[in-house]
Specification:
271 residues; MetI-like fold; 81% helix; globular
Length: 271
């Protein structure tokens, strides 16, 4: 009994590692190799191109703002749905999770329907010289939508497990809402919060679908890193495209590794 079982486990482990290597590791290695095909200096010069620098800058700024906004919104949403019971709570949880199930392209089309020149508010925005679609505000709105659930969803299980006893005791001792939140609730959930922030960051940096719809693909103005990769590749600038893709992959891997490191520390501290 034990022998076949061990052999079966060994086959399963080997198959899992082979799948991970073939599906996840090998493509990243191929991207790195292609980026360095003509040398590291050529790759470096492609990143110093003004359009490339603009794409990197826009991606980082939009991701930073979206992460800050959705961190605050996610904390409030998680607090509301875990600490209180009210009519419509289930519907609110479903709305929080909506961006995970809805195609990002649909989200981008919704923003165009609202803020595009032919959209519901397009005439009013045009009269007041306000541009949202095909500009940075539209890219930010799209990124906010697709990255909203991550902080809330990582905090909700921890806040649910906490209960309300500690917060109620703090309120009885005279602590206000913000003091209770920062001194009582969030310290116990800090690892979940950091994990949600890192997931939000990684998702925002790599977002393509919704941003592609609302950005207009204007090089040097409204192209983020993923959009710039597509522009370079379609223009047969393969080295520059793979170099930007390699940079994007490195940022994503660093974010995931940091998240894994924090989770490992959290489990070690809890044991």
């Amino acid at each position: 009994m034990g022998g076949p079982s061990r052999r079966g486990n060994a086959v399963l482990v080997a198959a899992t590692y082979l799948t991970v290597l073939a599906v996840l590791v090998l493509p990243v290695l191929l991207v790195m190799v292609e980026a360095l095909r003509t040398g590291i200096m050529a790759a470096w010069r492609s990143l110093l191109d003004p359009d490339a620098l603009s794409a990197i800058r826009l991606t980082l700024v939009v991701t930073l703002v979206a992460t800050l906004v959705n961190t605050a919104g996610g904390i409030m949403a998680a607090w509301l749905v875990t600490k209180y019971r009210f009519r419509g709570r289930g519907a609110l949880v479903a709305l929080i999770e909506l961006p995970i199930s809805v195609s990002p392209v649909i989200a981008g089309l919704v923003w165009l329907l609202l803020f595009g020149r032919q959209g519901w508010w397009g005439d009013w925005l045009d009269r007041h010289n306000i541009q949202i679609a095909f500009a940075t505000p539209g890219i930010l709105l799209a990124t906010l939508f697709v990255t909203f659930p991550y902080v809330a969803r990582t905090l909700m299980p921890f806040m649910e497990q906490q209960g309300r006893e500690a917060e109620e005791a703090a309120f009885l001792l005279g602590a206000g809402f913000w003091r209770t939140l920062w001194r009582v609730t969030l310290p116990d959930a800090r690892w979940a919060l950091l994990s949600g922030i890192l997931l939000t960051t990684a998702r925002g940096i790599g977002e393509f679908g919704a941003v592609s719809v609302v950005s207009g693909h204007i090089p040097g103005l409204t192209e983020t890193m993923p959009l710039h990769i597509e522009t370079l590749y379609n223009g047969y600038q393969t080295v520059a495209a793979f170099t930007m893709a390699a940079l994007l992959a490195l940022i994503a891997m660093a974010t995931v590794l940091l998240r894994s490191f924090l989770e490992h520390d959290f489990r070690k501290a809890s044991s």
